[in-house]
Design goal:
heterodimer, A: 187 residues, mainly alpha, 0% strand, B: 309 residues, 70% helix, 1% strand
Chain lengths: 187, 309
């Protein structure tokens, strides 16, 4: 009973805050409305018994949305984005696509002939999820994760404006690196 | 580990508040000593009360075109997230909630402070407070990775994300003994999480108070009080993660938890007074070049030990 009530509470919350993304007129409010929507969805995932996934969604989405807010405000036309603004880029189209997708998915959930549950949920869903996703390839995935991380770092190093030749001179033998900002490690 | 009855939900904020007041009193004594004033017990003890009364009777400052919704949300969120994060803290053998994913929950609730402080900086529609909010996010990007690696190291050592399980795994040997790097990095990032000590640049004097600069009256009380709660919670988590939780001879578990928490909190408050504020770009570089590799190495060592064992 409580679970059903919570389900509807979170579901309505997720929908309303998701729709607010199209209604609010400030970038910051839009960002946090979207974040609220994600947090409500995370609460639904927790209700499904997948505590780990739900909490990780909160963890990742808060970081992501705050970083998004920072960058969106930085790149906005208004100075620092402190003026009220609206999302001008294809607002009606985006709203139509979002509402349409929601309706299709919701109708699909009702119409699909779901299979009966076989067996019981595992004692530790987190472990079961890890096993189901990775199976015996956990080590491969961990290596892949580190490789991805290394790729990100390498890409940043390659893409950075000031490379080591700018910093350490043509033959990399300068005693002190030429840095635009003083201080830090080894400077 | 047992879960406390439901009414403990009401006790938790009180306990955390007592911890915060104790930290404030100690901080006031340190401030008096640093200023060359005589350190008197009565002045230090009454310092939190005086601060609270002063803020309660201060008139609220208003700014033009403020985003009141986000501003107030951010202010209220800080103490709320601190208490939510504290719900997995074990006191002796009991916690308000011993979640199976306690460590992840703790970190997720801490991360809410990113949103909160940024909103507090954004809300008043003022340049300096906005810079303060930006500083907190920039600092967060630098410390969060080492912080996560430190948390993961303790969880790996115990083989569980349950805080109670991590405490039980330390019945023989405290984790601080064989993961000292993770412990130190955890404490550093806990200070940064509560933007305290050398990491208080988001509230810096050079920004006229930064993120909290435009907050006054009750807002300021809730925001800065929440920050003390956050400091207490973040520091108190070091005890179950690395210092054996309530483990210790003779005394009952909860006494040991309180003693250890008080000791670590005292050290952190003292350190915060000892060191000047670090600049964002310096800390970011230090975090990426020194802290991240160190914590990855520490996690690797712990993972190897767990594999071999």
């Amino acid at each position: 009973m409580v679970t059903v009530a919570l389900f509807w509470l979170f579901a309505v919350g997720a929908l309303v805050s998701g729709f607010l993304v199209f209604r609010l007129n400030s970038m910051a409010r839009v960002t946090f409305a979207l974040l609220a929507s994600f947090v409500f969805v995370a609460a639904e995932v927790v209700l499904l018994g997948l505590a780990y996934l739900g909490v990780v969604i909160v963890l990742m989405m808060v970081m992501e949305m705050v970083i998004m807010a920072v960058f969106m405000v930085m790149y906005m036309m208004n100075p620092a984005g402190l003026m009220p603004m609206a999302m001008e880029h294809n607002k009606t189209g985006a709203a139509a696509i979002s509402v349409g997708t929601f309706v299709v998915l919701a109708v699909g959930i009702v119409l699909v002939d779901w299979p009966q549950r076989a067996g019981m949920p595992p004692p530790d869903p987190t472990v079961a999820l890890g096993e189901a996703l990775m199976g015996p390839h956990m080590l491969t995935m961990m290596t892949l994760g580190v490789a991805l991380f290394a790729t990100i770092v390498a890409t940043v190093v390659l893409a950075t404006h000031r490379g080591r030749y700018d910093r350490w001179g043509d033959d990399l033998r300068v005693v002190r690196a030429d840095e635009p900002v003083c201080g830090g490690i080894g400077r | 580990m047992a879960e406390a009855p439901v009414w403990s939900v009401l006790v938790l904020p009180v306990l955390l508040g007592v911890g915060a007041v104790a930290a404030l009193v100690f901080d006031a004594a340190l401030a008096a000593r640093a200023a060359g004033r005589p350190v008197s017990a009565s002045a230090a003890l009454s310092a939190p009360l005086r601060a609270v009364v002063r803020l309660l009777i201060t008139q609220r400052r208003t700014t033009a075109a403020a985003d009141a919704v986000l501003w107030r949300t951010g202010v209220v969120l800080v103490p709320v997230l601190a208490v939510l994060a504290g719900s997995v803290l074990p006191l002796g053998g009991v916690a308000v909630s011993d979640l199976a994913v306690g460590v992840v929950w703790f970190n997720a609730m801490e991360i809410l402070s990113w949103a909160a402080v940024w909103m507090v900086g954004w809300g008043p529609n003022a340049a300096l407070s906005l810079v303060g909010g930006y500083r907190f996010v920039a600092q967060g990007l630098a410390y969060e990775l080492p912080h996560m690696f430190a948390l993961i190291t303790a969880a790996t050592g115990a083989g569980t994300l349950r805080v109670g399980g991590i405490v039980e795994a330390q019945s023989g040997l405290w984790f601080v003994v064989w993961m000292p790097v993770a412990f130190v990095v955890y404490l550093l990032s806990a200070m940064a999480m509560a933007f305290w000590g050398p990491f208080d640049a988001p509230l810096g004097h050079d920004l006229a108070g930064g993120a909290a600069g435009e907050s006054s009256g009750v807002d300021r009380l809730v925001f800065l009080g929440g920050r003390w709660l956050l400091l207490v919670v973040a520091v108190a988590m070091a005890v179950p993660l690395f210092l054996g939780g309530g483990g210790g001879p003779w005394l009952p578990g909860w006494v040991w938890t309180v003693l250890k928490t008080a000791a670590v909190l005292g050290v952190v408050v003292w350190l915060g007074r000892r060191f000047p504020t670090v600049r964002m770009e310096r800390f970011a570089e230090f975090a990426w070049v020194v802290l991240v590799p160190l914590t990855v190495l520490q996690a690797l060592v712990v993972a190897l030990v767990v594999l071999v064992r």
